[in-house]
Fold these 2 entries.
Entry 1:
Amino acid sequence: MNYKMIVLDLDDTLLKNDGTISKRTKDKLVKAQKNGVKVVLASGRPNYAIEKIAAELELQKNGGYIISYNGARIIDCATNEELYSANITNEQIHELYDMSMQAGAYIQTYMGDYIIASESNEYTDIEKKITGMDIIVPSDFKEYVSGDVVKAIVLQKPERLKEIEEWWRPEINDRMYMTISKPFFLEFMNNEVDKSKSINRLSELLGISMSEVIAIGDSYNDLSMIKAAGLGVAMANAVDCVKKVANYITDDNEHDGVAKVIEKFVFQNGQKTVIA
């Protein structure tokens, strides 16, 4: 198969545990782009927290793309044009706030280049470290967040968050897209949003078939794109349900798993391997 697009999750996939990209992986991605392969960074992160990574990989120079907020935004790196956007409504973010307070969880959203948090907590501090964005804790969250937002994240310790996810699923139903990205992040987007839908939107714009797409990820919010891609790849450090649906399992994020996929399936024209 002649693959024309590589879609990459960031945390625990492209990025090593220290948040950097290995030289081997960077070199392979730059080489792939110079050979006409489109590189797309698809993450739950805000645009702000992806732009430096896109610049390091030379996406602006080579016509790459950013899919941010789990698919709620598509950005053309060459022009900085927003090709797609979808929000959750003000009523929905206020509803999620009320539900979070009842469940004893925290909630955060984004306004401009700031994280807006219901109260100070260790999990929003982690998001600040990941994204480099400053945190605002308003005295009245609902009054401060007075318009539509790109997404919301409910935060709690992993065991409790899984309970909340199961508890809320019948209530949320299909009104919003709900997914766990990190074990302590339960994310909510517009119901027309997930990574696979935005990859499909972008592929159609570029005239690329989904069968010509490689998608690589590790967590629950990567499930849809790994199932939809022509070659869905799970990292060795991926959660079990992602490994189960993947066509191929590569090495982990500390041992150049992404580079090894490019070497095997882009430059050596390897055949797709089905993992039982």
Entry 2:
Amino acid sequence: MDIPTHVIPLVAPRLSPSQQRSRWKITALGGGHGLHASLRALRLLDADLAAVVTVADDGGSSGRIRDEFGVLPPGDLRMALSALCDDSEWGRTWARVMQHRFTTLPDSPQTMEGHVLGNFLIVTLWEMLGDAVEGLEWAGQLLGARGRVLPMSTDPLRIKGTVVTERNGQLTSEVHEGQVALAKAAHQGSVTEICLLPEEATGTPQALDAIREADWNVLGPGSWYTSVLPHLLLEDSRKALSESKARTLVTMNLTSSAQEASGLKSADHLKILARYAPELHIDAVLADPSTIDDRTYFCQVAENMGTQVFFDRVESRVRESVHDPLRLAAAYKDVFSHFESNGAPR
């Protein structure tokens, strides 16, 4: 299949200790495993790094803590912090500590079953300091994190969406509230509308500053509706992204078979972003060529959005549907360097 001329194929890896590198200010936006993957790669670059994290999770240990303590869900914030730990013995140890999940005895009350230690560390700092951002700064210093972790909002958010399903030949429309409920329902149908609650929620000032002051804002990979799109649903965040002088890069997922994205084609992911933030210019899209279902159509959609597509092999050789940090870091570096060397204005 011929690749359109505006597509720039890349080959990874290309990181070399002796290679002269520029320093970029990069803000990565997302949540969960997707943001963890991008941060593990971005921390390998010579960059001033910030992570802006969704706060709408309501499942698992994070959801239970959110309900019982009335705090932001700490899980995605914890994962971002662990991703930024370096490869020293200190960093590797603390990354494991932060991700340690308790397993209780079968005949116990199991009140701690499934809880994650790092969630409690973060909530402890929040209660002691009375400030979500300051608590995360302290946690980052303890871990030796190579960058800042910031909540998208200091309001615990909820996601609400409308899902259309076909039952017995009839289309039915149902509204689902909460990340877990929406993801489960989306697996059975198509999400047609989505929003954040409360509607008057505001962005965290430090997170908005990180978006405005960046050289690059990186969206994705991750669950499209519940980790990536929320950054465009929050008005303050969407406005900051649109008005920032930074360039915007979207990292595509390695699979579209995630529970909430079932049935979405690769190009649909871009269309969703354009629908909810038509004023946002996406400068670049990074995708592994083996994971794009209709490459020609995907590139046409990107071209209509004024977006350059960069193809690179970023999937792990040993774990399917998992980004390789070194490959992804090299691919990010090539995208950033391409725009820098061509002197394209922001």
